[in-house]
């Protein structure tokens, strides 16, 4: 936070307000202010001209408000237990003019003049949306712990207050709102709307005078007809501005009245005679012309208003669609899910072009702010997902659906899927290794059994050697050695140890588990070992 020493009303103060987005402007920026429209704030920031107030408003409301604020500050100091100092400060482009700030910068004092409705709301602990943006921006800029929001007339008797605490949701909304306002300000083109016009004075038709005694004695009908015909021909039907619509609506009412007046004149004339054909036909003609023009003009006013309103909403709809398109290009292939802006609701009951455009543009800005927040969250999730799920994209074909989950839920889902996939792959790999070991062990056993078969055949005659009568059939010869004249028994041939004995001996020698010995044996290249042994002889 940066503190600025500025005097209200000086050129430096005005320049500061022009270059910064103030807390007191936050409600207007979000379209929540009842006093300043969003388009008015855009115009003021664009032109550098603040909203002008009448001398009466300046003297009786604004200046009086500063006086009441000064009276209320000591009462607030007693309430807080600390001194308060008016401060103008900023954080980047956001600024705040605090009615009071404690030396510790922990508490902000904000004062509003006594208003029965506002006082009742604050007494119930509720700060209306029109004032909440200002309070939250005060907290955002100052990093204070709370705002003491006071409504009073400067006296203890008429004073209510409530505390406003920092809200991360409001902080995000304010930051996003000013970001969108900044974009709109860069593209802003001033449009000058006249105040709601008063219809031009309609040229009055001459009073139709008729006197009859069996025949028309006195009448200004020719002059009346000429005037009425010219009036009808001059009625404007090309409606564009608020003034055109105001004139058209007044003309419709005038034509309706003129029709009724002609009907009364006819009735009066008929009361004087039974039949005056020319008079009646002329009056009927003029009356029919007036009625035709009135109905056509009335229908034109209605259709033209609808056409203009539809045009404004269509323009806003296209702008919103383009905004969505640009955001989705950034987060491709994800498609945004959002609530469509209610342009029709915003345009309802707006009777001037200025109010219509302001309402629709404000709805458009708020819709952009909302969808920007959604896109921001999606971008963050995509960035995290890109790192966390690297090489595992195939697990997330439903990313369009799951990415709109809350951050924690989304991350849990991604991590769980990857962990389950890794576990399944590891189990599959382990099963494959076990199968391969079993196959290798089976082949090893077959090899050993094949090698043992001849050895078994050679050891079988050992028992027969003691029986010479059977030696002929086996082909084996008894071998005897003599020493010192004594015969000795044949040398016993060592039998091959079993597989288990070999494995057990190796395990004991190398002090490893039998499974490790089996793994070593399976990894042996027996053919190469045989070649090396043969080469050694």
Task: Write a structural description.
The chain is an alpha+beta fold. It has 3 domains: 2-187, Lambda Exonuclease, Chain A (Alpha-Beta Complex); 210-322, no CATH class; 389-450 and 499-523, no CATH class. It has helices at residues 11-19, 26-29, 38-47, 55-80, 116-123, 132-142, 168-187, 221-233, 242-270, 277-330, 343-347, 353-388, 399-402, 407-459, 471-474, 499-510, 514-523, 526-536, and strands at 2-4, 21-22, 85-91, 94-101, 107-113, 146-152, 159-164, 210-212, 216-219, 481-483, 486-488. Strands 1, 2, 3, 4, 5, 6 and 7 form a 7-stranded mixed sheet that branches. A two-stranded antiparallel sheet has the order 8-9. A two-stranded antiparallel sheet has the order 10-11. Strand 8 and strand 9 form a beta hairpin. Helix 7 crosses helix 12 and helix 12 packs parallel to helix 14 (407-459). The radius of gyration is 50 Å and the shape is elongated. It starts with a strand and ends with a helix. The relative contact order is 0.05. Residues 12-144 form the YqaJ viral recombinase domain. Residues 422-444 have a biased composition (Basic and acidic residues).
């Amino acid at each position: 936070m940066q503190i600025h020493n500025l005097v209200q009303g000086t050129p430096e103060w005005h320049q500061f307000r022009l270059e910064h987005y103030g807390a007191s402007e936050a409600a207007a920026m979000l379209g929540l202010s009842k006093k300043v429209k969003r388009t008015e704030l855009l115009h003021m920031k664009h032109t550098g001209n603040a909203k002008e107030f009448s001398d009466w408003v300046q003297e009786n409301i604004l200046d009086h408000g500063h006086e009441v604020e000064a009276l209320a500050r000591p009462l607030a100091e007693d309430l807080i237990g600390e001194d308060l100092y008016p401060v103008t400060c900023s954080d980047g482009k956001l600024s705040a003019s605090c009615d009071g700030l404690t030396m510790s910068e922990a508490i902000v004092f904000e004062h509003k003049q006594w208003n029965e409705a506002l006082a009742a709301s604050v007494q119930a602990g509720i700060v209306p949306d029109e004032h909440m943006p200002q309070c939250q921006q005060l907290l955002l800029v100052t990093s204070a712990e709370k705002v003491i929001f006071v409504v009073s007339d400067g006296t203890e008797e008429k004073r209510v207050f409530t505390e406003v605490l920092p809200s991360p949701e409001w902080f995000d909304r304010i930051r996003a709102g000013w970001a969108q306002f900044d974009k709109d300000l860069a593209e802003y083109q001033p449009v000058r709307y006249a105040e709601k016009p008063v219809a031009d004075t309609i040229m009055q038709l001459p009073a139709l005078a008729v006197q009859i005694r069996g025949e028309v004695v006195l009448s200004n009908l020719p002059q009346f007809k000429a005037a009425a015909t010219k009036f009808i021909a001059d009625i404007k039907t090309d409606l564009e501005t608020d003034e055109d619509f105001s004139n058209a609506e007044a003309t419709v009412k005038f034509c309706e009245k003129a029709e009724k007046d002609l009907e009364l004149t006819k009735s009066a004339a008929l009361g004087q005679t039974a039949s005056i054909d020319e008079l009646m036909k002329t009056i009927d003609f003029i009356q029919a012309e007036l009625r035709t023009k009135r109905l056509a003009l009335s229908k034109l006013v209605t259709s033209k208003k609808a056409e203009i309103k539809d045009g404004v909403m269509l323009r806003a709809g296209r702008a919103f669609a383009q905004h969505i398109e640009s955001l989705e290009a950034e987060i491709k292939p994800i498609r945004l899910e959002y609530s469509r802006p209610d342009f029709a609701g915003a345009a309802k009951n707006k009777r001037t072009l200025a109010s219509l455009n302001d309402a629709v543009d404000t709805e458009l800005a708020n819709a952009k702010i909302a969808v920007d927040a959604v896109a921001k969250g999606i971008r963050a999730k995509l960035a995290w997902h890109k790192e966390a799920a690297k090489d595992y994209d195939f697990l997330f074909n439903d990313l369009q659906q799951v990415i709109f989950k809350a951050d924690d839920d989304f991350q849990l889902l991604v991590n769980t899927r990857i962990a389950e996939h890794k576990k399944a792959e590891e189990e599959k790999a382990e099963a494959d290794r076990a199968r391969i070991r079993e196959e290798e062990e089976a082949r090893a056993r077959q090899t050993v059994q094949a090698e043992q078969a001849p050895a078994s055949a050679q050891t079988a005659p050992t028992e027969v050697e003691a029986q010479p009568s059977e030696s002929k059939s086996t082909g084996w010869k008894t071998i005897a050695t003599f020493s010192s004249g004594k015969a000795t028994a044949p040398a016993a041939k060592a039998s091959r140890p079993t597989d288990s004995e070999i494995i057990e001996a190796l395990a004991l020698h190398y002090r490893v588990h039998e499974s490790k010995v089996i793994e070593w044996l399976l990894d042996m290249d027996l053919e190469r070992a045989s070649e090396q042994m043969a080469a050694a002889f």
